[in-house]
Design brief:
Largest sheet: 10 strands, mixed
Strand content: 15-25%
Strand order of the largest sheet: 16-6-7-5-2-17-18-1-19-20
Bound molecules: S-adenosylmethionine
Amino acid sequence: MSSPTPVTSWIHTQPCTIWHGDNLELLRMGPETSYGPVKLAYLDPPYNTGRELEHYADRRASADWLSFMRERLVALRAWMRPDGFVVAQIDDKEHAYLQVLMDEVFGRSNRLHTVVVKMAEVSGLKLSHADSRLMKTKEYVLIYRMGPDARLTPERQLKPEAQLHRYLRYYTKVIEDPSAPVEAWRIVPIRKVLEGLGRPVDEATMRAFQLEHADRVVYRTNNKLLAGMTFDTPTAEVISPQGRRYIWWEGRQMLFLSDHIHEAQSDLWTDISTINLNKEGGVAFRNGKKPERLLARILELTTAPGDLVLDPFAGSGSTGAVAAKLGRSWWLMEKGRQATTHIRTRLDRLFDGDEVGGLPYEVDRLVGADYRFLTPHVAEEAP
Ligand SMILES: C[S@@+](CC[C@H](N)C(=O)[O-])C[C@H]1O[C@@H](n2cnc3c(N)ncnc32)[C@H](O)[C@@H]1O
């Protein structure tokens, strides 16, 4: 264990850190340069549910909750890169108030999106109040940029299962070698390829193959332009008078599965499962734990590998685990005992190479990774 180091001396030098203490204390120290190193601050504060939860108290007068948040948001600004993002998750209770507050602190024109995210499965909710209330399944993810240089990187997503299924039923053939000239393409049933590989020809194996090779899995459809043409080969390249490129396939147009299975990312996220959330990371944290897939989506939308992610309300450490898995650096702040019982345990397991569930990742890449565990006034090495 090295001798204690004042926190401020290494704010810019040691990226991966658990800070066990009140986040305001550290946020107020502020970096010494004009702007900080943080690309993404993800805030998942107590939602002010009015309840005493297992791991933290969540009961304040609304005005107190707002001043609590205001102080932290204002202090946070100094930590952010000018091309960074502040993302906050919240439910109905304080959403509107938090949004107005964040508009004020970060600028209304910097509010990029209010994402609605499904955070519970209707089937998993108790039916006792279902006759007099709507079941609560959604939360909000508020996305603010620090300035005009901040660029989101939305990912194309797979279409919903029902739509996808319709395409997969028809796209049952594959080009053996798409790098060959078009005239030489051999197109064979996927079933035959799987048989040749000694793999089962069942729905799951077919689906996996179709999605993995979507850029050479094909189907054909009618096209008036191509219908009247003839070639000596089964396939040929045709350029239309408008300059569009088609693949002629025995009098019809060849379509590629890869052009049809994705859709643009929207601001309504209903596809992330919350089933078995308690098991993720090997630490149960009732009330408040977020799915690793949700955090992965937020991190991929706002950061690149190597960027620094800060979570001032770290809870069970989901953000740290996902940042590590995705090759981002991380800073976590947590004032409760869970800094040790959950966050440290979760990350130690990850770095020991234990199977911890959640987002899949390359286990070997993380084994032996290191971090610092800090208490308010000194830094001490993690064992
Ligand atoms: C909703 S939970 C976060 C859950 C986390 N996103 C996860 O996936 O596990 C909020 C956390 O903020 C912590 N917290 C509340 N006030 C804090 C403060 N002033 N400083 C640091 N942590 C605080 C609470 O102890 C609680 O663990």
